[in-house]
User: Which sequence fits this backbone?
């Protein structure tokens, strides 16, 4: 089933957009799949559609809103005030239980029906908020499970797994899409495009990584 096709789990954020262009570099035919899961900033889906169009890749979206009703979290429940810092001994309330499990499982079925064996997701264990479904062990375990469940040979690629946010910005720059990622993606938990609100956990991580990368790049250019 390996015929140069790849499916990117695509939210239109910094990480998945970087992964989309990584996939374009490494595969002949790229598909992007977004999800509506009851998120407050659902406009990310239309943003993702436009980013996919600009990248020249096939785009689709699936409504899996049930995910947002399964557990309490601040990304789908407007009555919950968002954690701006990671609570001691736990993960923040921006964690949507089962999200990556559902996304990748659904993506695998979607891929199988289209003869696609490669999938890409932008999870990272290096720079993350402690979400258990961003860990390398989870991805490897799910990869095995999906292969057993459908008797296929899927390969889940995680280009960002072992790099931090500064290195993710460096990768975007290397791929020639730094400005697209910086100004046209939506990472902010409050739904503000580009540099975002500046104070939610996603914006803080993104900004700190960008500042570190630009500083390192500037120092390198002066040498």
Assistant:
């Amino acid at each position: 089933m390996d015929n140069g096709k790849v499916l990117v789990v695509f939210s239109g954020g910094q990480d998945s957009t970087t992964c989309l262009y990584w996939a374009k570099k490494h595969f002949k035919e790229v598909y992007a799949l977004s999800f509506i899961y009851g998120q407050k900033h659902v406009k990310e889906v239309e943003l993702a559609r436009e980013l996919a169009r600009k990248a020249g890749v096939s785009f689709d979206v699936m409504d899996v809103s049930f995910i947002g009703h399964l557990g309490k979290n601040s990304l789908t429940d407007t009555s919950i005030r968002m954690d701006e810092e990671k609570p001691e001994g736990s993960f923040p309330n921006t964690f949507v239980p089962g999200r990556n499990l559902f996304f990748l499982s659904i993506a695998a079925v979607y891929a199988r029906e289209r003869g696609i064996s490669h999938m890409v997701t932008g999870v990272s264990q290096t720079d993350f908020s402690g979400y258990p479904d961003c860990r390398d062990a989870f991805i490897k375990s799910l990869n095995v499970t999906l292969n057993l469940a459908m008797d296929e040979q899927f390969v889940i690629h995680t280009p960002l797994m072992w790099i931090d946010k500064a290195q993710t910005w460096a990768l975007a720059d290397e791929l020639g899409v730094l400005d697209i990622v910086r100004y046209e993606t939506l990472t902010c938990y409050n739904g503000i495009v580009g540099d975002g609100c500046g104070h939610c956990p996603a914006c803080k991580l993104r900004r700190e990584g960008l500042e570190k990368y630009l500083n390192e790049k500037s120092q390198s250019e002066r040498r």
